[in-house]
């Protein structure tokens, strides 16, 4: 039996575990089990009868502890074999393993000092980079008003109309959801800059570069991978599929080691509100992992609804906890998302590749995750 973790780190990790039992792995010929014991996490050789047991390949284990792939990713790819237990047994352990293996802290609303920050504050391009950067680094998001003019937004909306009319289910350039009448409804266009000259030119706009690189001047756009520039279109009413996205971090499908911190820049083509489907964020949650039941664990954690006007731009750090909930009214919010990634992305993700390849056009598989945890 052996302790392999710093005792203080292991004790901190143990606090993230609820009532979860031991979690064992069979990785090639090796077997080992994580336990909580006496307020600490330890890992022992071998498996135990009462524990969850997951068999995965050496390569998948390496990807998991290297933060290249997540449990959700491996599950959807069919690379987790449950000898005992099921996917729900991994939920409590997930942030604990991330902390033990990569030092990613488990969410604590007190970690970010939001006391001096007015979370309803908005900015304009007349504000300085230093002011906007300071807010973004602390809160994990930013709302900049009036970045694009009405004529520019009207033109972009016409272009999205044109591309939406051409999209078809299964074309691998779009996401679809099923509405309450059983009709397939377009909810996202991806790689838009590759199919639209206008959007391709927009990707070179200095306003986007300025906001996308506030976090780090090394970040850059990836028009030909990670789904490039994407147009999100919120479908009204109840839907199945991926029109309404529950709480998630954008590295939830994997790629934390190569994609974080990235900055998602959202050009608001319609403006947004609860009625049309807005962006919700948990300020200060970036750079941490969150338990699937974080809302229960931290009922007083702040949540901000980022309501916008056409032409506004939002920025969110991609591992900020955020959601795109069901519109309470007519729906129809349109946002054009351009993402700025660290240079390490290009070492690992080739043209046409994206972690979301595992969910695009795979509604049935993603639904199989059940209510315990939704994909991202
Ligand atoms: Fe997201």
- Highest-level CATH class of the largest domain: Mainly Beta
How many separate domains?
2
Radius of gyration: 21 Å
Per CATH, the architecture of the largest domain is Sandwich
Unreliably modeled segments: 370-376
- SS-based class: alpha+beta
Helical residues, percent: 25-40%
Strand content: 15-25%
The number of distinct helices, counting runs of at least 4 residues, comes to 13
- Remind me, CATH topology of the largest domain? Jelly Rolls
Number of strands: 18
Query: What is the terminal-to-terminal distance?
Result: 37 Å
Envelope shape: globular
Question: What is the residue-averaged pLDDT?
Answer: 90
3D structure, described in words:
- The protein is of the alpha+beta class.
- It folds into two domains: 7-102, SCP2 sterol-binding domain (Nonspecific Lipid-transfer Protein, Chain A, 2-Layer Sandwich); 129-367, Jelly Rolls (Sandwich).
- It has helices at 7-14, 58-65, 71-76, 93-102, 129-139, 150-166, 192-195, 197-202, 206-212, 256-259, 294-297, 345-348, 363-367, and strands at 23-27, 30-37, 40-45, 52-56, 81-84, 141-144, 174-179, 184-189, 220-221, 230-233, 239-241, 245-248, 263-268, 279-281, 304-306, 313-317, 322-324, 334-341.
- The strands form three sheets. Strands 6, 7, 8, 9, 10, 11, 13, 16 and 18 form a nine-stranded antiparallel sheet that branches. It has a five-stranded mixed sheet with strand order 3-2-1-4-5.
- Strand 1 (23-27) and strand 2 form a beta hairpin.
- Helix 1 (7-14) runs antiparallel to helix 4.
- The chain is globular, with a radius of gyration of 21 Å.
- Residues 370-376 have low confidence and may be disordered.
- The structure holds fe (ii) ion.
């Amino acid at each position: 039996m052996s302790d392999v973790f710093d005792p203080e780190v292991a004790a901190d990790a143990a606090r993230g575990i609820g009532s979860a039992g031991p979690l064992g792995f069979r990785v090639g010929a090796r077997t080992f089990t994580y336990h909580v014991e006496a307020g600490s996490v330890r890992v022992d050789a071998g498996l135990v009868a009462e524990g969850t047991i997951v068999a995965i390949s050496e390569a998948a284990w390496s990807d998991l502890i290297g933060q290249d792939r997540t449990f959700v990713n491996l599950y959807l790819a069919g690379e987790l074999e449950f000898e005992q237990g099921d996917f729900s047994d991994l939920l409590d352990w997930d942030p604990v393993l991330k902390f033990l293996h990569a030092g990613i802290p488990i969410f604590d609303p007190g970690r970010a000092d939001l006391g001096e920050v007015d979370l309803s504050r908005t900015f304009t391009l007349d504000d300085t980079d230093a002011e906007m950067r300071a807010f973004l680094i602390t809160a994990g998001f930013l709302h900049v008003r009036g970045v694009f003019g009405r004529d520019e937004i009207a033109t972009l909306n016409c272009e999205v109309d044109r591309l939406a009319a051409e999209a078809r289910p299964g074309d691998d350039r779009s996401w679809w959801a099923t509405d309450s009448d059983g009709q397939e409804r377009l909810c996202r266009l991806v790689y838009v800059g590759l199919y639209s000259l206008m959007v391709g030119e927009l990707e070179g706009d200095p306003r986007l570069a300025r906001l996308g690189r506030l976090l780090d001047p090394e970040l850059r756009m990836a028009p030909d991978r990670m789904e490039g520039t994407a147009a999100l279109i919120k479908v009204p009413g109840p839907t199945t599929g991926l029109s309404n996205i529950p709480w998630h971090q954008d590295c939830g499908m994997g790629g934390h080691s190569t994609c974080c911190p990235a900055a998602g820049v959202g050009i608001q083509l319609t403006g947004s509100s609860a009625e049309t489907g807005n962006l919700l964020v948990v300020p200060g949650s970036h750079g941490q992992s969150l338990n699937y039941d974080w809302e229960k664990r931290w009922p007083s954690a702040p949540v901000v609804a980022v309501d916008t006007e056409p032409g506004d731009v939002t920025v969110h750090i991609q591992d900020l906890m955020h959601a795109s909930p069901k519109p309470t009214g007519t729906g129809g919010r349109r946002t054009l998302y351009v993402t700025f990634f660290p240079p390490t992305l290009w070492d690992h993700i080739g043209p046409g590749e994206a972690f979301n390849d595992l969910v695009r056009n795979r509604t049935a598989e993603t639904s199989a995750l059940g209510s315990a945890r939704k994909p991202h």
